[in-house]
Amino acid sequence: MQYNKQNKRAPILIVDDEPEMRFALTATLEEEGYRVLSAPNGEAALKICMARSNKDPFSALITDMKMPGMSGIDLIQQIKKRWADMPIILMSAFGSVESAVDAMKLGIFDYMVKPFSEKTLRDTLYEALHKKPTEGKIRRSGNKQLVTEDLGMKKMLKMAEVVAASQATVLIQAESGTGKELLARFIHDHSPRAHRPFVAINCAAVPESLLESELFGYEKGAFTGAATKKAGRFELAQMGTLLLDEVSEMQFSLQAKLLRVLQEREVDVLGGKGTLSVDIRVIATTNRPLLEEVKAGRFREDLYYRLNVFPLRIPPLRDRIADIPALVQHFILSGAEKNGKRVNAISKEALAILMSMPWPGNVRELENIIERAVLLAESEQIDKDHLLFPENEPIRQESAPTTITTVWEAERKLILETLTQVSGNRTHAARMLGISIRTLRNKLREYHKLDPDCETANTESK
C-alpha cells in the first residue's frame, strides 16, 4: 500500500503506554494545528492503522520504544510492511540509545531521546512531513543535520549519544570546518539538558581583554564602563550546556580561572561579593592537538585532563570520502531550497572531481562549493563546469597518481574508492553510489577483465 504524502489533512498517530505522555504530546501538536489520534500500546495502534487503511492514512507515527506487549520496534516493522513511506519518529529513553540507532536501519525518520522539549517535537515532526528520509543518515533533532555514511563517523556518533546521557565533560578535537559545534549541539540535544539553554562562546573570536568578563560576567561598577550588571556565559548556560569553542586559544592566565570553575562549579563574578554556583555541562572544542599545546607550555596540563574526560575526534573530510556523495546531495537540496532553484542532482564526472579533492576546508568548504554550483546550474543537474575552486587548490594526488581523462576512468575511480571506504561491502557501496548491485557487479567484472591485478574489483561479494 502506498502512503499518500500529499494528504495534509491526515492526522498524526501517537503511541505511548504512559497517559501523561500521550496527553502532553497531543496537546502540543493540537496547539500547532495538527489533528491527533493516540493509542496506549502497539497492538491498539496497529488496529487503528488497519481500520483506517481504506481511509486517510496517517501523516506520521510517533511511538515510544518500550511498551508492554508489542514494542515500538515491532510496531515499526508492521507499519513499514504496509505503509513503507510513512514517516516514523521513535521516542527513546537513555538506556535504549543502542536500540534506537538500530531502529534507523528499519527506515524511521528520526528518534527523540526523552526528555525532549516541545520545540524538538515540533521541529522533528515538521521535518518528517516536509523532507524525504535518507537511509543511514544519523540526524540531530533541529534544523541542521549530521549527514554521514562513513563507518568511523557512525561509530563516533554512537559514542556521542552514549556520553550525551551522562554529565561528563566532552573535548571535541578536529580540524576547522568539520562540524565541531554541530556535534556539540548533537550531544546537547540528546542529553537530559536538551530543554535547557545551549550557550556557545568562541574563545578565539573574543579579545583577550574581554573574554574573562564574557565568561564570568560582572556587576555594575566592576570596572570603568560597567554601567550595568551583565550575566556571563556560565550563568546564561545555567542547567544547560556551555560550549567553549576553540578553547586552546584562551590565554594562559585565564585557564587557571576556568579550571577552578570546572573543579568547584562556582563562578567569581567580576566585582561581586560572593560566588555563583553553576550546574552546567561543559563541552570544549579545539582545532589544535591539545596535548601538543600542553607539551609546548601553551596550555595547562591540569585543565587539559579536566576537559578531556570524554574525548571525541571528528575525522577530516579527506579521510572519509564515503561521506562526500551523501553530503553533496544534502547540500544540493538545501542550497536549492535556500536559493529557489530546481537543482536536485550532480553528474558522475562532477562527483568524481569532488571525491578527488583534498578538502583543506573540510565540510564547510564542500558546502560553499556546492552552493555556488547550485547558483550556476541552469538545469536540474550540477556538471563539472559549475564547480568553482580556489585557483591554488590542487586536486589530490594518490601515492601512485593516475590522470583521469575520461568519464569511464572517473567512474572507475569513484567505485573503487567507495568500495575501499566500506571495506568491500558491495551492498553499501551500491547504495552510496545510487546504482543496483547487478550494475556494480558488472562494472567490477569489467574492471577485473581489463586489469586482473585490481584487488578491490576481485573481492568476493559481501
From TrEMBL:
Electron transport listed as a keyword: no
GO molecular function: ATP binding; sequence-specific DNA binding
Domain Sigma-54 factor interaction residue range list: 146-375
SUPFAM superfamilies: CheY-like (SSF52172), Homeodomain-like (SSF46689), P-loop containing nucleoside triphosphate hydrolases (SSF52540)
UniProt GO BP: phosphorelay signal transduction system; regulation of DNA-templated transcription
Pfam families per the UniProt record, alphabetical: AAA_lid_14, HTH_8, Response_reg, Sigma54_activat
CDD domains: AAA
Residue ranges of domain Response regulatory in the record: 11-129
Keywords, in A-Z order: Activator, ATP-binding, DNA-binding, Nucleotide-binding, Transcription, Transcription regulation
The keyword Plastid is assigned to this record: no
Name the UniProt record assigns to this protein: Response regulator of zinc sigma-54-dependent two-component system
